[in-house]
């Protein structure tokens, strides 16, 4: 019963039904074309009917050989790892082909009038055996092609699932990291400017709403992302002193552009984290522009690296961003970074997918 269930499942699979439909279609097409050729050449309806009858019978024999191998012999014998089953496959095929075609091979020499015709019959027999075995080989190759495509599709699906899982993990890392850095900044405000700290908490709630609820899709509106970055800059500006120059510019002509959510957040965070000194002149310049369908993010800031004793969220930001860009925009992004004369520069160019 188990074997019958497996055979039923095998025969009713989508790929196998497609092959069956294609084979029946080819069979009907060949019979019809050959009958039409006879009709056009002989101008004889009876000859065309006889041709259809003969060719329908002959091609049906070949079709059954193919189907028997495709559905049964190849999957259960040829594709098995046992050498004994491999040998059984070819022996069974030989016996099956001979028995299935016995009507063609049952013409006795006494029925053939002379030697030349008998020689022609022998040649026909050899060619007919080769043609039958061609059906066997065709069944092997068709099954190999289907299995190969199925494996490729499964691997592609598994890779996609792994990529999505990794992106989800990276995103889940990003939100706590962002929250940690922001709370760290608000914490310092509670001591120096309680009023600004209260205002910052209100702004933080708006940022969290976007980060937690608006960034669930794989891509979000670029305008929405820019609004988030503007709010973040305004929040961070509250704790910046008069010695810090903060400039931002956003020029987007195509309002339909989409971008991966929070992809530019890390360099903006790092600019406020590493670009501001308590007693030295500092600057942060941030821009997002559109250039021939490409999104260009640019951030330049003074660079005052934190020392080893600073524990304010060190480590995962940039590495997380690089990995996300590679997973989401492989071959469609560029990153330029440089540090010169205590100035940090990063430029990210992304070519979004067309919709």
Which features would summarize this protein structure in a list?
2 domains, alpha+beta, two-stranded antiparallel ribbon, 5-stranded mixed β-sheet, Heat Shock Protein 90, 355 residues, 65% helix
Helix content: 55-70%
Task: Give helix and strand order, one letter per element, not per position.
Answer: HHHHHHHEHEEHEEHEE
Number of domains: 2
- How many beta strands in the DSSP annotation? 7
Report on the biggest sheet. 5 strands, mixed
- Beta-sheet strand percentage? 5-15%
| Shape annotation | elongated
The stretches of 5 or more residues where confidence is low (pLDDT under 50) are none
> Strand order across the biggest sheet?
2-4-5-7-6
What is the CA–CA distance across the termini?
Answer: 51 Å
Number of helices: 10
Mean pLDDT: 78
**CATH architecture assignment name of the largest domain:** 2-Layer Sandwich
Q: What structural class is derived from the secondary structure elements?
A: alpha+beta
**Name given to the CATH homologous superfamily of the largest domain:** Histidine kinase-like ATPase, C-terminal domain
CATH topology category name of the largest domain: Heat Shock Protein 90
Give the arrangement of secondary structure elements.
Elements: H1 2-11, H2 14-42, H3 45-78, H4 83-100, H5 102-105, H6 115-192, H7 194-214, E1 220-221, H8 222-237, E2 244-251, E3 258-259, H9 265-274, E4 282-291, E5 294-302, H10 317-328, E6 333-340, E7 343-350
Helix pairs in contact: 2-3, 3-4, 3-6, 6-7, 6-10, 7-8
Transmembrane segments: 20-41, 56-78, 87-105, 125-146
Keywords: Kinase, Membrane, Transferase, Transmembrane, Transmembrane helix
InterPro entries: Bact_2-comp_sensor_kinase, HATPase_C_sf, Sig_transdc_His_kin_internal
């Amino acid at each position: 019963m188990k074997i019958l269930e497996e055979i039923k499942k095998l025969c009713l699979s989508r790929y196998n039904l497609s092959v069956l439909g294609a084979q029946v279609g080819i069979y009907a097409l060949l019979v019809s074309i050959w009958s039409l050729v006879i009709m056009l050449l002989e101008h004889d309806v009876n000859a065309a009917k006889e041709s259809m009858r003969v060719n329908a019978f002959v091609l049906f024999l070949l079709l059954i050989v193919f189907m028997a191998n495709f559905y049964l012999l190849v999957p259960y014998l040829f594709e098995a790892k046992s050498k004994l089953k491999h040998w059984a496959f070819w022996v069974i095929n030989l016996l099956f082909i001979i028995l299935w075609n016995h009507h063609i091979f049952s013409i006795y020499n006494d029925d053939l009038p002379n030697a030349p015709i008998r020689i022609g019959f022998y040649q026909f027999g050899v060619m007919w055996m080769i043609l039958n075995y061609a059906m066997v080989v065709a069944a092997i190759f068709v099954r190999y092609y289907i299995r190969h495509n199925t494996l490729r599709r499964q691997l592609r699906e598994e890779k996609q699932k792994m990529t999505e899982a990794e992106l989800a993990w990276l995103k889940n890392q990003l939100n706590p990291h962002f929250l940690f850095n922001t709370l760290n900044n608000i914490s310092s405000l509670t001591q120096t400017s309680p009023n600004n700290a209260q205002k910052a908490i209100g702004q933080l709630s708006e940022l969290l709403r976007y980060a937690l609820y608006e960034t669930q899709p794989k891509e979000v509106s670029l305008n929405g992302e820019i609004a988030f970055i503007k709010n973040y800059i305004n929040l961070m500006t509250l704790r910046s002193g008069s010695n810090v120059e903060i400039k931002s510019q956003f020029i987007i002509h195509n309002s339909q552009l989409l971008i991966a959510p929070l992809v530019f957040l890390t360099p903006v965070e790092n600019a406020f984290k590493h670009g501001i000194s308590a007693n030295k002149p500092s600057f942060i310049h941030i821009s997002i522009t559109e250039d021939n369908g490409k999104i260009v993010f640019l951030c330049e800031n003074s660079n005052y690296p934190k020392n080893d004793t600073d524990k304010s969220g060190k480590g995962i930001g940039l590495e997380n961003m690089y990995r996300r860009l590679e997973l989401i925009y492989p071959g469609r992004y560029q990153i330029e970074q440089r540090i010169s004369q205590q100035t940090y520069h990063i430029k990210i160019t992304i070519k979004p997918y067309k919709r």
